[in-house]
Protein: CHORD domain-containing protein
Amino acid sequence: CKNFGCNKKYCERTNFDGECRHHTKPPVFHETAKYWSCCPHKKAYDWESFMEIKGCAHGKHSDIKP
Structure:
């Protein structure tokens, strides 16, 4: 899936609405802070913590870049 923050593999046959938890806007990397532009209040300072920030939107998985 190419939705921001998802990166999961999926099968179109089982791709129902709500299966994908993702972010609606791209990531921001500013100095040492990392965050999603749709969730500026959830900042991380290392890669692992950044990747653990849960998506703020639900929908279908997509193979099209947002």
Q: What stands out?
A: The helical segments are 47-51.
